[in-house]
Amino acid sequence: MTTAPDIEVQLVRNATLLATVDGTTFLVDPMLSPQGANPPIQNTPNDRNNPLVALPEVDLDYDAVVVTHRHPDHWDEAASEELADDVPLLCQPEEADAFVEEGFTDVRPVEDETTFEGITIHRTPGRHGHDELAEQMGPVSGFVFENGATLYVAGDTVWYEPVAETLAEFDPVMAVLNGGEARFEEGEPITMGVDDVRAVREATDATVAVVHMEAINHCLLSREELRAGTEDVLVPEDGERVSL
């Protein structure tokens, strides 16, 4: 790999990231389908095929893959087919068997923490919505990448006490949040909206970047709306890099 800043995150699309820590790059939540290849997420106000936008021209050069959870906007059929079978693949313990069944031979479930190329990787809690809907959405995780400087990728979660505790425990220099305020016709949002992002901004001195926007039909909060409703928050476009 080429020399990189201590921490650099490049948004590919939606929650798909290239997260580089001390020269080691992790492909996070690969959703690689062409624009419009998949049906819309049902029971939502915006009935459009997914993904809403094409993949940008990004060099997908990485050392390992990290999947926060297997919902199709974080792990799709295209990723399953296109990634090398022997790529190191880090995931939630509950989902390890599913990756093995798809033919991946180096699946590394992270119970609490693990290491890769000198990077300590901690799995962190998430809550994919509120009340009963969060239970129905199944388990989700975030990950902290630690090697001197610390990167927190929160995953699909709303603001709640364990997110605050993760920020306090690891004191990241960068936090990447999944925004978009994804929602269904009924119930509260299942990813962060303006108030959630504001709460994170108030809780940490880290650089805060928000992704997971304008790519999937149930993500109704736009980049423009989030920028207007927050201060000192980065909202990258697809293909854009955020570096420290």
Automatic annotation (TrEMBL):
Keywords: Hydrolase. GO terms for molecular function: hydrolase activity. SUPFAM superfamilies: Metallo-hydrolase/oxidoreductase. Residues 12-212 form the Metallo-beta-lactamase domain. PANTHER family: L-ASCORBATE-6-PHOSPHATE LACTONASE ULAG-RELATED, UPF0173 METAL-DEPENDENT HYDROLASE MJ1163-RELATED. This is MBL fold metallo-hydrolase. It comes from Halolamina litorea.
